[in-house]
Amino acid sequence: MRKESWGVRRLALSGAGLIAVVSLLVWVGGYLEREDTRARFAAQVQAWAKLELPAVENEPGPYLRGQLVVVEAAVLDWKPTWGVVEIQPARLDAGQFELPSHLQADSPEEVGTVVVCAHKREPLDLEYRLEGAPAGSGIRAFRYDIQVTLYDLERGVCAGQTTLRGSEPQDIMEIGDTSVGEPPDVQAWLQGLPWRPAQAAAE
């Protein structure tokens, strides 16, 4: 009975170890693939993040064209000594890897629409306090907003812009924490927009 029990235990341990190894290999493979994608787009990301194109005319609303690249805009801050400074350069947004495969551009040449996301933490006009905490120990609360701007490279226009608002944070937090709500769902908004094929692909 003991031998059989030990054999079952060894089999279970071997199976768990195999699952752990496979999971690690999958994670490493995904990480390397993401890094390779970032490298392919690195030369264009800074220019895309600073695009300024005229607003599209005679369109009922925002739209997408062709395949997409999602760029996170540079994070800026104001310092009394230096003025506006860049504390984080523009980079490929994590949302690029969440796009459906048919919308993901694999190279800069395939990009039809540049999606620029400016992440912001908006302070709320209230304090979140812990129950029983002394006066003045309130926790500042922030809402996570993302301004999304779409650029149609084929037409050379801004195809739309909106600010998506995140949720408000919960009102019970630990003292010393910063209370920030959940970010908005950019993917859901993008996938709900009208899509048009790139002209080159349509011909």
How would you explain this protein's 3D organization?
This protein is an alpha/beta fold and 203 residues long. The protein has one domain (43-197). The protein is 29% helix and 33% strand. The protein is built from three helices and ten strands. The protein has helices at residues 2-49, 186-191, 199-202, and strands spanning 64-65, 67-72, 75-79, 83-88, 91-92, 111-128, 139-152, 157-165, 179-180, 195-196. Strands 2, 5, 6, 7, 8 and 9 form a six-stranded mixed sheet that branches. A two-stranded parallel ribbon has the order 1-10. Strands 3-4 form a two-stranded antiparallel ribbon. The termini are far apart.
Topology readout:
Blueprint: H1 2-49, E1 64-65, E2 67-72, E3 75-79, E4 83-88, E5 91-92, E6 111-128, E7 139-152, E8 157-165, E9 179-180, H2 186-191, E10 195-196, H3 199-202
Parallel strand pairs: 1-10, 2-6, 7-9
Antiparallel strand pairs: 2-5, 3-4, 6-7, 7-8
How is this structure best summarized?
With 203 residues, the chain is an alpha/beta fold. The chain has 3 helices and 10 strands, in the order αβββββββββαβα.
Spell out the key features of this protein.
single chain; 203 residues; alpha/beta; 6-stranded mixed beta sheet; two-stranded parallel sheet; 10 strands
Order of helices and strands: HEEEEEEEEEHEH
The general outline is globular
* Counted beta strands: 10
Estimate what percentage of residues fall within beta strands.
Answer: 25-35%
The structural domain count equals 1
Q: Biggest sheet: strands, sense, closure?
A: 6 strands, mixed
Task: State the helix count.
Answer: 3
* Rg over C-alpha atoms, rounded to the nearest angstrom: 23 Å
Distance between the termini: 72 Å
Level of helix content? Answer: 25-40%
Structural class: alpha/beta
Unreliable parts: none
Average pLDDT, rounded to a whole number, is 79
